[in-house]
What does this fold into?
Amino acid sequence: MSAPVTAVRRSGEFFAFCLDALRGLGRRPVQVREFVQQAWFISSVSILPAALVSIPFGAVIALQLGSLVRQLGAQSFTGAASVLAVVREAGPIVTALIIAGAGGSAICADLGSRKIREELDAMQVLGIDPIQRLVVPRVLASMLVAVLLNGLVSVVGVSGGYAFNVVMQGGTPGAYLASFQALGQLPDLLVGEVKALLFGAAAALVASYKGMTAKGGPKGVGDAVNQSVVITFMLLFALNFLVTAVYFQVVPQKGS
Amino acid sequence: MGVEVAVQGLTKSFNGQPVWSDISLTLPAGEISVLLGPSGTGKSVFLKTLVGLLRPDRGSIVIEGLDLPRLSERALYEVRKLFGVLFQDGALFGSMTIYDNVAFPLREHTRKTEAEIRAVVTEKLDMVGLVGAERKLPGEISGGMRKRAGLARALVLDPRIVLFDEPDSGLDPVRTAYLNQLIIDLNQRTEATFLIVTHDINTARTVPDNIGLIYHGHLAMFGPREMLLSSTEPVVRQFLNAQRIGPIGMAEEKDAEELAAEAQAGVELPPLPPIPPQLPPSDGRPRRAERPPGQWCREHGVTPPPGSFTGAEWSGQRDHQAGPVGTGGGPR
It folds into this structure.
């Protein structure tokens, strides 16, 4: 089979898989226990790296903007610029990287090893749909954790940027906060959370799909995890672009 | 209380490569059948097709009037509750203890209380001799124990059809003998329809009521045990007696040249070994599906090889791939 045909077929199968997962969403019984366990697991592997990544991320943005804004002579807007950058873009992106890298790879490895040990076949034979039993709770857990993680990353990133700006760059706390008020608005935070929600869903869906279609023994699982992380990253950046483009079209910006 | 499984014209291929085609057989209700075949002939694929994990290209599988390949995904999940399947390595859920593994189908499908579940699980674990290992994880027990735990889980919903995917692979001959006895005893107790997929000829010669042989992408023969064991059909004869002389070669089948050379050299097939008696249930009472030894031969005017049904030691080559004792899963 030629490569383009295979690629189209895989995409189609992935789409069908997403629809199955969507349908499984409404089916009883709801797997509350699995959902809670997974949410706990994903947050336990992602909170610390997310916090540690977001501090330098906030600082780098503050550093870049600090010098740029000074060159332009708009020091009073440093706060606004760095907060908006963190909340709108950096927060969701950091969340996406962590969710895909830590949560998604764990989901994919877990389901992949179950697949090659025939656990998923056994489950189907026992009359249980693995999509409803395993995938749906993981997707929901990943979405929830992504949204919460985005909040955490935003808070840590903004405080990091604030500390950096005020302590190291000699900015004034008042100007930082006031300018944020002048340009930022609530939809900025909301779009960040919507992005995180979508990223969480996409990362878990890709990871689950790749895990459940793993084949060829332990090496197959390794390949599946590798592919799932790479595919998720590409997908998330594409999604990010789309959501941002739509956001600027739909929500009027302050002062424009 | 077993049910009949009627397979008609079943064909399956992967990416245009046929695995097997036009398989037709009927697993009689309540009887033990064995499906044999050289390695790589798609025996496991057949098993997975039978429970609807794989869809065949053509053909029908009729169980209680339902044609499996035509069923919707949701209806399939209902029909699968009739089945119990023992996978090769047990396919236990690695994150759950043995107890939780066996209790899993009950918790998912029934509204039993934990006390009732405990009673059923303990009974099944007792049946397979695993009492005392409830709190262990699948990674902590031997391959033979994993298989028996998988069997307990497969039996917990009282299936009408039980499928065994190579129950003897990776087990030493002693454990295999115990497992074979367990299969006979379970059939006596549950009267479900059993299908065992294997390439262990010792199992095939002593356990089943019926034998089928898949060879070169088709079903060479399917019928009562005595019919195949007394058959002079070259493929059946070669495989059931583990001989090198015959149409099966190292790589699937011998080519015509080799066969002609063999015929010219006048290689004589060794005489058929005696048909061994069937393994009896351990409590001495007969199984419902059991037939008296020699009945088929008498009814069809076939003279069984001398020494048959006397329990005389069968002297053919044994084909056991005995792994390290009791740790048949390999590293994980």
